Amino acid sequence: MVLLIRRTVRPRGYASGFDLPAALLDGLSEQPGGHSTSVSDLRRGIVSGVIISRVNKLLTMSLANTIKAEARALGFDAVGISRVAESSQQSAISHRPDSSLSAPTTPLPHLLFSRLTEWLRQGYHGTMAWMTRDHARRSDPQHVLPGCRSMISVGMNYYTDNRANEQPGMGRIARYAWGKDYHKVMSQRLAQLEAKIATLAPGITTKAYVDTGPIMEKAWAQQAGLGWIGKHSNLVSAESGSWLLLGEILTTLDLEPDEPATDLCGSCTLCIQACPTGAIVEPYVVDARLCISYLTIELRGSREVISDELASQMGNRIFGCDDCLDVCPFNLRADATNEPAFTPTPLTLAPSLQTLSQISQEIFSAMLKESPLKRAKLSGLLRNVSIAQENQQRQTGGRAS
Fold it and tell me: Which residues contact 367 (CB under 8 A, 6 or more apart)?
């Protein structure tokens, strides 16, 4: 005899009175031993203890699919879910052939803590002192949002078919900064997604970030199946290549996770070979102190803070560097974005070094108020432009263009 314990099911994260979708009722009424629960009982949430776990499983899958559909409707090109709490998921990152930090069953937060600690110990963070604060919080989302159970990772394709003007006298700006500031673009969309989640599951808590919070977002994006961390330390997507901008929503909601992405880099080392300064010191490890993106964006100070050797390798790059991204073979599969906010401007496609060298603070603030370029501040941009002009004069034998 099968003893049926009848009780009301209120799945974690769902409001009282949540109406079970009709599709989820199929097959749930039949129970072991020939006993059954009526469909009306199922709709009211009164079921036997035998099928409670099945109901919860189907509900989390249904809600996860609904959230992902809403994310895509808001313009996100990629979306996936990873489980943060009580996770039986293996870390995709620890599956790398070169991994020696842990067994594949090591929880992702522990692995991230170990890798971050070692990276900081090597001094690879340069002057970014904020990265040294509270390693545990940066490695574990539960320290950022108490009770966090899931993370929803999203990506937006920013690739366009435009080509930068490489004529003499022009600077080079990283592709992600050709259009409007992606932080604002994606933050607005994530806020809309948070609002939608709140209507689907009242009472839960969410917290969203776009490259601004203490979240190691590339690792969690890989865990959510958006892509894998390439040897250049950036995320690579089989669909979008190296051209995904990332954001995430932390939530106390328990959602069905996606399968982690597999590292498909194989024996390819094109990105390592392409780096002008040798900043990729080993596969998957970047020394920021040598990286042109760090030198032109994050590093504060006058011309003297950049060595002559590094300055000569910066070429005409005045904001960021795409060299390691450009050579990735998976970019061949990438389609141009449909997001108008990432449309390049005449300034970002053809930045005149001479014009920029004379820009005032007033013009800088007005012209770049919606651009990622403001991150470098006027002093940093002028320093970078000056270095690009030095390199140009060296290449042309002292003749200015």
Answer: 347, 359
User: φ and ψ at 108, to 5 degrees?
Assistant: -55, -45
Whole-model pTM: value is 0.83
In this structure, are 207 and 85 located in the same domain?
A: yes
- In a shared domain, residues 20 and 84: no
Long-range interactions of 43-51: CB distance < 8 A, separation 24+: 43/19, 44/8, 45/8, 45/9, 45/10, 45/18, 45/20, 46/6, 46/7, 46/8, 46/9, 47/6, 47/7, 47/9, 48/4, 48/5, 48/6, 49/4, 49/5, 49/7, 50/2, 50/4
Convert the pLDDT of each residue in 241-286 to its tens digit. Answer: 999 999 999 999 999 999 999 999 999 999 999 999 999 999 999 9
Query: Based on the domain organization, do 127 and 214 belong to the same domain?
Result: yes
Query: Which residues in the chain come in under a pLDDT of 50?
Result: 1-13, 15-19, 23, 27, 29, 87-88, 95, 97-103
| Residues forming beta bridges with residue 319, ordered by sequence position | 173
The CA distance from 30 to 45, in Å, is 15
Q: Both 83 and 206 in a single domain?
A: yes
Our count of domains for the chain comes to 3
SS3 43: helix
Based on the domain organization, do 247 and 105 belong to the same domain?
Answer: yes
Is 315 within 8 Å of 172 (Cβ atoms)? Answer: yes
- DSSP characters for 351-399? -BHHHHTT--HHHHHHHTTTSGGGGGHHHHHHHHHHHHHHHHHHHTTT-
Judgement on whether residues 104 and 195 belong to the same structural domain of the protein: yes
Q: Do residue 98 and residue 189 come from a single domain?
A: yes
In a domain, 307, yes or no: yes
Alpha-carbon gap, residue 311 to 317, rounded angstroms: 10
**Structural domain harbouring 151:** 76-251
Active site residues: 211
Domain end residue (candidates: 251, 278, 304): 251
pLDDT in tens, 146-201: 999 999 999 999 999 999 998 999 999 999 999 999 999 999 999 999 999 999 99
